[in-house]
TrEMBL record:
Lineage: Bacteria, Bacillati, Bacillota, Clostridia, Eubacteriales
Descriptive protein name: Uncharacterized protein
Length: 120
């Protein structure tokens, strides 16, 4: 799966959860991001990345997406973001949160690259 740079930049906000207050997305802290990308083969330690080099969450996430872009792992990143198990037990403004908003938001981004999430 290959996405253009603009799409990758927009995915950063979804992965990091920086739009969570508006969209009901899951916020991921620095340690959460290291764990998230660890599932795709990166072996890093939080303190070395975020405190030693003063790398922001946004810059870290974008660098990982750039490394994964054009590989089969990129598709797995997208599918991990919309896995409904991520949303079990979450609430936003006292309403249960599910993956439908995340799917909708990601589809608005990746459609410009010729992709669409369709779940069975």
């Amino acid at each position: 799966m290959k996405l253009d740079g603009f799409s990758l930049d927009k995915l950063v906000d979804i992965i990091n959860g920086d739009e969570r207050l508006k969209k009901g997305l899951i916020y991921r802290s620095g340690p959460d991001l290291v764990k998230f990308f660890g599932e795709f083969g990166f072996r890093e330690i939080y303190n070395e990345i975020f405190t030693g080099f003063k790398m922001s969450r946004k810059k870290y996430t974008l660098s990982k997406l750039n490394e994964l872009n054009g590989t089969k792992k990129m598709e797995k990143v997208i599918l991990k973001l919309v896995d409904d198990r991520n949303f079990i037990g979450l609430e936003f403004d006292y309403e249960p949160v599910n993956n439908s908003k995340t799917i909708e938001r990601i589809n608005k981004i990746i459609k410009h690259d010729g992709y669409e999430i369709k779940l069975d």
